[in-house]
Amino acid sequence: MNKIFQLAVEASSIEIIDTAQDFESAAILWLLDGKSFPENDLQRFSSRLSPSEIRRWVHFARSVRRRQFLLGRVLLRYAVTAVTGHASRDFSVLERSGEAPQLLFSDPSYCAPNFSLSHSGDWIACVVSTAAVVGVDIEMNRLDRGFDDISTLAFSEREQSWFGARPHSERCAAFYLLWCLREASYKLECNLRSSAEALRLPHDDSYARFCRPGIYAYQIPVDDLGLTAVVVSNEALSGIRKVVLTQPATISDLIP
Question: What value, to the nearest 5°, has the Cα angle with vertex 228 and ends 161 and 170?
């Protein structure tokens, strides 16, 4: 693994990894470019949503958000099928108020894998692991955002101080890394069914030691896609396999 910084405390590091030799102690991150999927194709897929998914889907006021939700559920079913070998009809997704969605298999004795979803623009991300509880966040690396204004509104005083100390050439990368880390950590906390806590920022100028002990953060190299991606887990992962899906033209290419 290629660490950004060599640290004495493994649990506090941000690591860059994108390959995995042993899935039993690793995770897989799927990234889907959804811009090529026709709207009518997505609407047909909506009939395959669970009742709780439909109730959530229809509450989205913006068409963009409804589309992202459907694409996320497409990718989730594809990823879970790839990991478990179960057809998508063998499991369903239960939406839970105030908690992360839950996978329900027709065989109640089957141990469902852990997963987390994220979206940004046309891109959808889904990380799946049988080794750890996980959270993921992706963001498009837009340069036209008011980083200072957003950090003032969204970040704590200490986080603002850390971000403000970054050199100008690093501010975009630092902003998205911190933002993704916060979002992925919140999703991890939801998946762990515990309350989110403030991130522990570093006392020095490194990107390291963002998380409290026992929380592991990994940055996935996706600069070539114009994205920042962070996966956070409650157990150390041996690796994260990155799979980018850019070619499928229809949903049936992913979910027969």
Answer: 40
